[in-house]
Design a protein that fits this description.
Helices cover 31% and strands 15% of the residues. It is of the alpha/beta class and 481 residues long. It has a single domain, classed as Alkaline Phosphatase, subunit A, CATH 3.40.720.10. The strands form five sheets. The protein has an eight-stranded mixed β-sheet, sandwiched between helices. Strands 2-3 form a two-stranded antiparallel sheet. β9 and β10 form a beta hairpin. α1 packs antiparallel against α7 and α10 runs parallel beside α11. The longest helix has 25 residues. It is globular and about 70 Å long.
């Protein structure tokens, strides 16, 4: 009986670690190989032979706030909301997600100027306020969509539908990873965190070689990737792996070369190596008590403790040379925000946003401080963003609807001019009116800091040279140091 490769993999994939292969073989292609990448010399399989210009950073940590944080309640204070509170909007209202618009709603949060820079941050984020001088807040971000799944795709890939590579995949494709035992693009989850609307396609390699897609690690489980264990690997698994490789090599010889199969062959080696590197990464017993307290790992709030572990593992991944790391929020179940979009408070915004702020505030601030103390912040870029902002008018009595016309994101770390804000929305925070930005500008800036010209990082697909920034994008030079 002739055996197929598909049947073989179905029957013996657990020998390598089922989720290791899932993380590295899901999507249209096979998987996820990461080559060692000394910073001065890029790996042979990287898209770039050399940096386009000297890089400012080596790593990116993407703190994704799924659901849509209200900018007018966090990083973009609007005193006029108080003056117009309870009154109809004085300007024309655009169509919203649910189109049930209320009157202007004042912010229930209090802003204060923080740090030597006097950067205004609300009391939703008291700990992040303590590192205000590290942040550059972009107050004029926009997106063309007002629905979660499309918004998530735009923020991750620049396009409102699946099939395009995630920003992390582009970074892995262009630059690779500094650690051959770990992927170049890792997505951390913990507790009740789930993938945002759009699913695993948000972390896809799209039309790029499949080894550049995101590998999902469960940060708070004994097995971060199911069946990936530090012991019991040895001879039996090696024999299975070699057998699988021989299947692929035979197919490759017959087909005359196939990049996806070549990637699969190397992925078996990577999966085998990950069985040692991943458990070691997730074993935080060597972290001091002061570090655990700093991040909030021992918090009585389960969601906060789980997010704290993600932030700590993000630092450990940076130390191990991973290029792009994405963190995932957990749900508090307040307002309309479900597990996939926990910041989505169409009702009870104050309680929902306070609970979500409490979850991420201390861990993110601790991550920045810890990276700074270890000399790693200058080589790491932290990007904080969601898919859109929220309206200055209410939805129902005490919620806010989606607002794609203007919202805030911030960056911190190497090459960033901390303690600054860039762009502006109108007096009510409804539309971006000064230095309007798009996701293409954001990712052009990220790539620039990584030493990459966003117009030159391309991949030939369907008859054209594709880019993360499509045919758009300008580097936000005003926020660079």
């Amino acid at each position: 009986m002739r055996r197929s490769r598909r049947l073989f993999l179905e029957r013996c994939s657990t020998g390598f670690g089922a989720a290791a292969l899932t993380a590295m073989m899901q999507g249209d292609g096979w998987g996820n190989a990461a080559g060692a990448a000394p910073e001065a010399v890029l790996p042979d399989d990287a898209a770039l032979r050399t940096f386009h210009h000297p890089p400012k950073v080596k790593h990116v940590i993407f703190c994704y706030m799924s659901g849509g944080v209200s900018h007018v309640d966090s990083f973009d204070p609007k005193p006029k909301l108080e003056a117009f509170h309870g009154q109809p909007m004085p300007v024309q209202v655009e169509r919203t997600q649910f189109n049930r618009n209320g009157n202007v709603m004042a912010s229930p949060f209090t802003f204060k100027r923080s740090g030597e820079s006097g950067l205004p941050i609300s009391d939703m984020f008291p700990e992040i306020a303590s590192v205000a001088d590290e942040l550059a807040v972009v107050r004029s971000m926009t997106t063309p969509v007002n629905e979660h799944a499309q918004g998530n795709f735009v923020m991750h890939s620049g396009f409102p539908f699946m099939g395009h590579p995630s920003a992390g995949a582009w970074c892995s494709y262009g630059l690779g990873s500094e650690n051959e035992n770990l992927p170049g693009f890792v997505v951390l989850q913990s507790g009740n965190a789930v993938v945002p609307h759009g699913g695993l396609s948000l972390f896809s390699s799209g039309f790029l070689p499949a080894q550049h897609q995101g590998s999902v690690l469960k940060a708070d489980q004994a097995e971060a990737i199911r069946n990936v264990r530090p012991r019991g690997l040895r001879d039996d698994q090696r024999r299975r792996m070699e057998f699988a490789k021989s299947f692929d090599q035979q197919f490759l010889d017959q087909a005359g070369g196939d990049p996806q199969v070549e990637a699969a062959i190397e992925n078996y080696e990577t999966a085998f190596r990950m069985q040692t590197s991943v458990p070691e990464l997730c074993d935080i017993s060597d972290e001091s008590e002061s570090t655990r307290r700093q991040y909030g790992l021992d918090s009585g709030d389960q969601e906060k403790a789980a997010y704290a572990r993600q932030c700590l593992l993000a630092r450990r991944l940076v130390e191990r040379g991973v290029r792009f790391i994405e963190l995932s929020c957990l749900t508090k179940g307040i307002g309309a925000g479900g597990a996939a979009n926990p910041w989505d408070q169409h009702g009870d915004l104050e309680n929902g946003h306070r609970a979500m702020g409490f979850q991420v505030d201390q861990p993110i601030a601790a991550l920045i401080k810890d990276l700074r103390a270890r000399g790693l912040l200058d080589e790491t870029l932290i990007v904080w963003a969601g898919e859109f902002g929220r309206t200055p008018f209410s939805q129902g009595s005490n919620g806010r609807d989606h607002n794609p016309q203007g919202f805030s994101v911030w960056l911190a770390g190497g090459g960033i001019k901390g303690g600054t804000w860039y762009g502006a929305t109108d007096e009510l925070g409804y539309h971006a009116i000064e230095n309007k930005c798009t996701v293409y500008d954001l990712w052009a800036t990220v790539l620039h800091l990584l030493g990459v010209d966003h117009e030159k990082l391309t991949y030939r697909y369907s008859g054209r040279d594709m880019r993360l920034t499509d045919v758009h994008g300008n580097v936000l030079t005003d926020i660079l140091s």
